[in-house]
Amino acid sequence: MGAKNLSVYLDNSATTKPCEKSVKKALEMMNEKFGNPSSLHMCGFNAKKEIDSARHTLSSFLGCEDKEVFFTPSGTVANNTAIFGTANAKHREGKKVITTMLEHPSVLKCFENLEEQGFEVVYLKPDINGKINLDELSNAVDENTIFVSVMAVNNEVGSIQDFAKVKTIIKNKKSKAYFHCDAVQAFGKIQIKPKKLGIDLMSMSAHKIHGVKGAGALFVSNNIRISPYIFGGGQENGMISGTESTPMICAFAEAVGDIGNVEKNLHNVTAIRDYFVNKIKDVDKVYINSPQDALPYIINISVEGVPSQVMLNSLSSMGIYVSAGSACAKGHRSNVLTAMGVSPAGIDSAIRISLSKFTTENDMDLLYNGIIETINRVRR
User: Fold this and answer.
1) Is the dihedral of CA 16, 17, 19, 23 positive or negative?
2) Nearest to 371 by CA among 346, 349, 342
3) pLDDT for res 3
4) For residue 240, what are the β-bridge partners?
5) 174 touches 142 (CB < 8 A)
6) How much is the pTM?
7) pLDDT tens digit string along 313-370?
């Protein structure tokens, strides 16, 4: 098996290959409609019109109003805007915020900063299936709570939180806390209509759904108010200053339009996931870290006796690309797998396999063969 005749990309939770429509639209905007959307001439008006159209594409997909969609440079900026925007707007109402140990660093680092500012931060611990206990969430919410952030789908193991119940819990505690959901790994893969689910703020990213890097979005409910934390020219209705990246934003909308049938995609990817898991689970000392009801686009496994980076390097040499995003990062073990109770040996040998709607059984066969070949070489 060699890289010359093979390329199997299974790191779609890190980024996806941009779809043809996204690339074409980005090039069109750069070549033909390159005006600054804030400029008061026809070239600027044309660019602004394209952004307005892109905004409507997203709002239609989300089931919300156009004015509730704000474009950002990334999912990270969307998360930062939601968290610091709420903290700045509501800090006089209380200084308690709640999140989980499962969150992406772009959320966790914000909460660490809030701690430094004097906020009380509650980190909810997941169970062995990567899910938080909703009773613990309910017990944590009180009159001083201003913000709750719970991701929809974990980026390392694919666990799906019961996010549809979070706002109900907040309301039952008679709290006015805002509910933020990092939906970067869920958007376009499962149905999420934020207004129907009581989500106040929701983060999304283009390059996770076959869009182009450089664009994200933040849903902000009409029913709430947050403060901007990036200041400048007042773009995006004053929420996120900085000249909009019109090519990336419009490419984002093209990717949304190209998602297709979410439920059909989910069904097909589930079949591919099950096909692979049913083969790999019988291999000696291979463990499935993702729960059975995880988002099927993400499969986290540990191959005991084969360090993550060794497996990655071996597969990469064969033209097969996965991630060690769940293993050690700069000398620190995964906070997610640690919180889930995975052993140190399991964490150090964990790899994340992330599928797309284009992944095939043949791709998974080649991955399986590559893993077996690596095991036989390293374990002997």
Assistant:
1) positive
2) 349
3) 43
4) 230
5) no
6) 0.94
7) 999 999 999 998 644 455 577 889 999 999 999 999 999 999 999 999 999 999 999 9
How far apart are alpha carbons 62 and 123 in whole angstroms?
Answer: 28
- Active site annotation includes 328: yes
Q: Which fold has domain 3-18+260-379?
A: Aspartate Aminotransferase, domain 1 (3.90.1150)
Same topology, domains 3-18+260-379 and 20-257? Answer is: no
Distance between CA atoms of 20 and 23, rounded to whole angstroms? 5
pLDDT-flagged residues of the chain (< 50) = 1-4, 326-328
Q: What is the pLDDT of residue 241?
A: 78
Among 19, 64, 110, 328, the active-site one is: 328
Domain at 20-257: CATH code: 3.40.640.10
If we measure between CA atoms, which residue out of 91, 68, 37, 26 comes closest to residue 242? 37
Determine how many CB atoms are found less than 10 A away from the CB of residue 177.
27
The two structure tokens encoding residue 374: 């690596």
Domain ranges of the chain: 3-18+260-379, 20-257
**Model confidence over 68-86: pLDDT tens digits?**
999 999 999 999 999 999 9
pLDDT recorded at residue 300? 97
pLDDT of residue 334: 87
Spatial separation of the C-alpha atoms in residues 259 and 95, rounded to whole Å: 40
Burial class (CB in 10 A: 0-12, 13-18, 19+), 165: middle
Give residue 169's identity as a one-letter amino acid code: I
User: Cα separation of 175 and 139, whole Å?
Assistant: 12
